[in-house]
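Action item from last week, closing it out:
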Amino acid sequence: MRADGHLYDAIGVGYAAKRVADPAMAAQIERALGDARRVLNVGAGAGSYESTEREIVAVEPSMVMVAQRGESAAPVVRAVAEGLPVASGSFDATLTVLSVHHWRDRATGYAELRRVAPKRVVLTYEPTLQKRFWLIEDYLPGVARFEAGRVPTVEEVAEGIGATRVEVVPVAHDCRDAILPAHWRRPEAYLDPEVLRSASGVVQSDQDEVRAGIERLRADLASGAWYDRYGHLLDEDELDVGFRLVVAG
């Protein structure tokens, strides 16, 4: 979440249709939130992981993302993680889903999550693991280079929010949320430019490198080389590509 919201004002068009809640991920987030009633959802985007069973207030800086929130979505405040416009201890839990790598000042953002609520739930990913995902390692290494230093380690996030546990969040083979690894068992999906536009790391990487990498993937799918290397994945139902749920309280 950029402090001015301009990143997603530029790349967030159409996110509401692509970045929908995956049922398995949503259920894991709900379990982590436990009995929290009032939840502040920081970097809420179009509101895909907001439960209708809780009292949720969303925080989102991008007008493009705010405009994509449905009529029944939680009320939203335009603000950033580093300056949450709510009183200390006024919520039962703070939640943020795949947003910490967009914050300009993560230390301040973590402190704000701690200030606002006794429970903190953060969905993030471990960059050292995600760069081993076959799409990034073999075809889009520029994404890993772009994200080096930008994406915090899980250890940093855990320390920042005072975590009490960290959970593996596997990605199902039919994951509905169009995160970059969602199609790990459907490699042909990555040939669709619309799929790639759903991943901020891809959009912000060198586009000539991205196009060249996808052409290599296209050739490997046609020749069968991809199946020789990764065909064993077709028998798997879920894959650990580094996503983690970091929970405090």
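Closing note: The CA atoms of residues 86 and 134 lie 42 Å apart.
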